[in-house]
Amino acid sequence: MNENILTLAGVHTHIGAYHILHGVDLQVPRGQLTLLLGRNGAGKTTTLRTIMGLWRASAGRIEFNGRDITAMATPQISQLNVAYVPENMGIFADLTVKENMLLAARWARNIGQIDEARLQWIFSLFPAVEKFWNHPAGKLSGGQKQMLAVSRAIIEPRELLIVDEPSKGLAPAIINNMIEAFAQLKASGVTILLVEQNINFAKRLGDTVAVMDNGRIVHSGSMREMAENEELQHSLLGLAI
Description:
CATH class of the largest domain: Alpha Beta
CATH topology of the largest domain: Rossmann fold
Family: Belongs to the ABC transporter superfamily.
CATH architecture of the largest domain: 3-Layer(aba) Sandwich
CATH superfamily of the largest domain: P-loop containing nucleotide triphosphate hydrolases
Shape: globular
Strand content: 25-35%
Number of helices: 10
Structural class: alpha/beta
Distance between the termini: 34 Å
Strand order of the largest sheet: 6-7-8-3-9-10
Pfam family, one: ABC_tran
Organism: Ramlibacter tataouinensis
GO molecular function: ATP binding; ATP hydrolysis activity; branched-chain amino acid transmembrane transporter activity
Domain ABC transporter: 6-239
Number of strands: 10
């Protein structure tokens, strides 16, 4: 089995008249948490959306588990046990937390058909999901909505979880809870690709890191190496971790 669960080779993406990705080469090792870092506007979100088929690559190749998914539609990609949590979380505000979770459980027609052990595991990761089970999702706080968004993504077993800025706008206590949840997810065998601006979040969780600039990957390596090298941090990100 290939050690990389996801590979992008020379991927270009155009959005209308704009050329956003300029030949992205990215490898996501199986069973690890890979951080995608970079300044605002570097192309990180476009990379995630292109992987998921929400925007179509105009050139290059995307492989998941050795299978070419470059031209696949988003529903087809999700059926390969890939889940995506966008930056805006994408929850249904007028539905309850329970109804949001049921919608995400594709093969369940009612809540009783959801794997009870898995549901209890999710409750242990994100207690707020259980606490507000019958509340409208739109009434949750920002942190609670983020917990719900991740919970929906993992209501069924996933091989790859792709998350765009999970700690954005969250209080430190909730960020710590999110870090622990992702650590448990990784320990359970889920491969995670994460876009994150919170450097402490990245340093505590990341195994490997790729840095984007102007629509390209300009550095890839271990998170530990980057965390210990201030000169590298300044040259790539303009800051020190």
